[in-house]
Design goal:
Layout lengths: L36 H5 L14 E8 L3 H14 L4 E3 L15 E3 L7 H8 L1 H22 L9 E2 L2 E4 L6 H13 L6 E4 H7 L8 E5 L2 E3 L2 H14 L3 E3 L6 E5 L2 E6 L2 E10 L17 E13 L2 H6 L8 E3 L6 E4 L4 E7 L10 H14 L8 E12 L5 E3 L7 E5 L5 H16 L9 H4 L12 H18 L1
Amino acid sequence: MQHQAIEGGQARRPYDPTYDPVVAPDPGHGRDYAPTYWIGTAGAPPADDGPVRADMDVDVVVVGSGYTGLSCAIHLAREHGIKAAVLEANGVAWGCSTRNGGQAQISAGRLKRSQWIERWGVDVAKKLHREIAEGFDLFRALIAEPEIDCLPQDGGHLYIAHRDKMMPGLEKESSLLNEVFGYPTRILGRDEVHRDFVRDAEARGAMYEPDGMGVHAGKLAFGYLKLARRLGAKVHTDSPVIGYSRRNGFHYLATPGGTVRARAVAFATAGYTSPGLHPLTKHRLMPVLSNSIVTRPLSEQEVAALNFRTKIPLTDTRTLRHYYRLMPDNRFQIGSRSAITGADATNAKHLDLLLVGMARKFPSLKGIEVDYSWWGWVDVSHDMMPRIAQPDPAQSVFYAMGYGGNGVMYSAQAGRRLAQMVAGRGEGLDLPIFTSALPHHGLLTPFRRMGQRALYHWYHLRDELL
């Protein structure tokens, strides 16, 4: 992959495949993008506003130029008349937003609707469902903007049972969605999945959700950038926050090129949140690596042999789930969880496990040429749900993160809600994801990865053997 040029003609610093947000002091400065399919096929990034070159006074700073940060800037300008300054350490949407699977689903966080009810009761769960559904409507409206050409593949989402024992749970969840939430899912048998969607050898049945969409993740991010700048936001790349202080009610964010003074700060750094970024974000997430691959284009005969009749998002029922689909150019994409640490991310065994998983589902793809292979950090919160919040009412500091791998769609709405809060118009946002801070692991923080390693072994046993 060729390195992108940055302002002044300087080549970007090489991509670091072992970067680890748990231990790295920052996400780098002027680093190249990960070698993803999205970056490889999106074309050159649109123009941005270049690095911060001098001290600046602004009303609002947004830290992070991924989907959430750019959506926040878009909605600050469009709905509140605030022209934000967005600070990005590397290139636009360098982190999660160009390393995901491009799957937009009607979800946010890792919990199912039944788990929402267990945690908060039926009334709150229904209101949260309406919030997520509204988010999907917003997402559809945003990608219809002329700046955004993200190759949407609309048509729903298929949640595929990878073992017989998973079907009762899917049936129960489908009934709950239909009867309690009024959301029209349906259960499909194995034969129906194979006939009407795809011949996934593992499939024992599935739950179909009418809302789901595949998108080109890179084109989506670049479209958000163009829209944000048209509305008046400034997006400063290669401007990592390397120091923070607060004095006399103002926030001072130091970058290599100058200090930015702001009335309010919104953090949208997700899985790339450094431990030293700000005290209110420190150790509030558990970054988890996800691997993804994209094959060479399949021939029409290969597509027909798999009976691929859809390009909608597909996920399976593993705890460490696989997410996969056929791309618009007939390449096959699949991803799943990966290494525990950044230092181990380049270990070939993680790619091998993903290839084995692909071959279990589609034996005819065993040995197929892989054109793109990458990994990225997913922002999992300690209670598996996102937060869009002002964690300390005494400080004009806000954040939106913790989507758990389900942020492609809801990040648009999260950015809009974040903008509302920053603008002082957060009244009525009374759901738990708005009114509480991201939880902290406290004394367990140094041992989180030991727990993660043990859980991964347990999840594998439960998903594959027990």
